[in-house]
Amino acid sequence: MSQKIISFHYTLTDSDSVVVESSHGRDPVSFMTEMGMIVPGLEREIVHYTAGQKGRVEVKAEDGYGLIDFSKYVQVPREALPKQEIKVGDMFQSNQSPVPFTVKEVAEAHVILDGNHPLAGEDLLFDVEVLEVREASAQELQQLQEMMQAAQQQQQQAQQQAGQPPEATA
Questions:
Q1: Which residues have CB under 8 Å from 63's CB, separation 6+?
Q2: pTM (2 decimals)?
Q3: Beta bridge partners of 110
C-alpha cells in the first residue's frame, strides 16, 4: 500500500466521556500513513475513511498510548525537582524523555514520578472528520526520511550525554 497523507479533525474523549482534547478551532491534524505518527488504533481505522467521512473510533488502551508500564515509575528525592511545592498530578519535563513525568505520590523525602504517557492505560474515543486523503509526494517522503534521521541522531546524542548506550537501529 502506498503512503498517504490524511488530514482530519477530531475530538478525543476518555472512558468517562470527558473531552480530553480537540482539533476544532485549530488547523486539522495531518499525518503520513504507516509512519506511527498517530496512535495505532486510530490509524488502523482512519486509513479506510474517505474525504468528508465522519465517524467514531474506539481505541483500546493497548492500541492507544499503551498499557501502564510500572517500570516507568521512578522514585526521586524531592530536592531533585525544580520546585518545593509538589502535589500529586504535577508534571515535570525531563531532557531524557519527550513524555512529561507525572507526580503519583509525594512523601517527605521523595516523590514517585510516572514516565508513562498521561493517557496510558486509558481507552479512548475519537470522533473524527476526514478532510483530505491523498498520495504522499516524493518530496514529502524525502522530507520525512530526513526528519527521522535527524531525530534519530538527536536521540543518540541525548543517550550518550546521559551515559546510556545508544539503541540499536534497523
A1: 39, 40, 41, 44
A2: 0.76
A3: 77
Integer CA distances (angstroms), 113 to 87, 91, 164, 169, in order: 11, 9, 20, 28
Average pLDDT of the chain, as a whole number:
88
Q: What is the mean pLDDT of residues 11-23?
A: 92
Q: How does pLDDT run across 144-166, given as a tens digit for each residue? A: 888 888 878 877 777 676 655 44
Q: Which domains does the chain have, with CATH numbers?
A: 4-66+120-136 (3.10.50.40), 70-114 (2.40.10.330)
How far is residue 21 from each of residues 25, 126, 167, measured CA to CA in Å?
A: 11, 10, 32
Number of H helices, E strands in the chain: 2, 9
